[in-house]
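User: quick one, fold this
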Amino acid sequence: MHATGSSGADAGTDDDVRMLHQMGYAQELTRRLGRFSNFAISFSIICILAGGINSLAQVTAGGGGAAIGLGWPLGVLLSGVFGLAMAQIASAYPTAGGLYHWGSILGNRFTGWLTAWFNLLGLVTVLGSINVGAYYFFLGAFGPSLGMLDTTGVRIVFIAAVTSGQALINHYGIGLTARLTDFSGYLIFGGSILLTVVCLVYAPGLHWSRLWTFANYSGMPAGPAAVWPHVSGTWVFLLGLLLPLYTITGYDASAHTSEETRNAALSAPRGIVSSILWSGVFGYLFLCAFVLMIPDMDDAARQGWNVFFWAMDRQVPGMLNAFTCAVIFLAQVLCGLATVTSLSRMMYAFSRDGGLPFSRTLARVSPRHRTPNASIWAGSVLSVLFVWASSVISIGDTPVYSIVVSCTVIFLFFSFIIPITLGLFAYGGRKWPKMGPWNVGRGGYSLFALLSIAAMVLLFVIGVHPPNDPARWVTLGFLVLTAIVWFAFENRRFRGPPIGEAIARREAEIAAAEAALNTAAL
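Assistant:
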């Protein structure tokens, strides 16, 4: 049984649609993404020009140059082992909301449900944090010349406008979104090269030894503005790993858009791995160049979170500085655009199996645009509400926003590690009998899975270290809450993705759903 007409299931995608049918789902979304477009979605969400710049103070006011020269490759490697393990699973099960399905198929209903909630919360909060980061970058780069002041009202209006634009573009179809994220991929490559060249040209001197010189700038800038509290040199270096670990994430988007990707069983795993690889390489180039451009590392540590603008304003001529910042800001906005895509596909996939409130509405696909419009707008609204609520609430002296953003990375990587760990036990058995075309073998998968588990332990330990220690209680509290909700309500209600005879029973529903969408689109 194959979808026809505007479904995008032509001769080149019959295998993709057949595999989707075998998993019990209709081809409701349009397969318009090629290999590069699938890669570009993840590459755009990672967006080294966003996290790599907005979180720079974690190293310049932390472990110094060595936190980039040695810490960035180590952090990319830690994130990369997750991606290599996930690529193997993505090749075998290429569906929208991939992580949720992997957690369900390789484990059970509960592990799939838990994975979905970790991933959804991570994506909602990361969308908010990306757009908050874009706001503060705009404020730092252009705010002084525009007379723009940072107030809660200005911040929320700015972020709501940007998020609405990102949602509106997603609303009008994957074709427009793909063209923009393809452009974003080239923009990130070009912007990274531009920033690298600018930093090297205007560097006061090429002091290469900075890149392997350890320092301990914890406690700076002095007072409550300190990026990190006073800690040992070893700890401050480990805390600096949060820069690459926060930046190099979101590559699960290649799996989330599998149902819109041609030859998804190969394109999705390649998108995951290549987005990590090229983000790591190009991020390393411009970050090392930036460290070399800094006039004085001690002065840089005193700037705290303003270090990027301080260095650029001191070293780079005005017009070139403004142009470079404009390129970076545009890349950050397109990063949010791609995140809306990933978030909406995860929400759509979970909803079509009844995993969320108002699932029937959230699972609807527009016949005209072939996009899950309700999920696009619901996810976008939730991210803006998160930014608003967390901007006005504090726990002690720490804003809730800072605490939740610390949890974002933990939540996302937890959603990665659950199916990866389950795959260790399911590999080659009844739950995972057949590998996809991307296959590193039993030994390779086991190695990457075990390394991912070790990396997850390290990430959690450093992720809840002061000043982010409230994140420990938020994470543990979330686990307790999910256990209560599952055993009190969802255990009896939620059935998970179709398996066994349920897939066969869905054949008529699949045909009817595809026919209805095709007829409505005429």
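User: anything notable?
Assistant: Residues 31-495 form a domain with the Amino acid/polyamine transporter I fold (CATH 1.20.1740.10).
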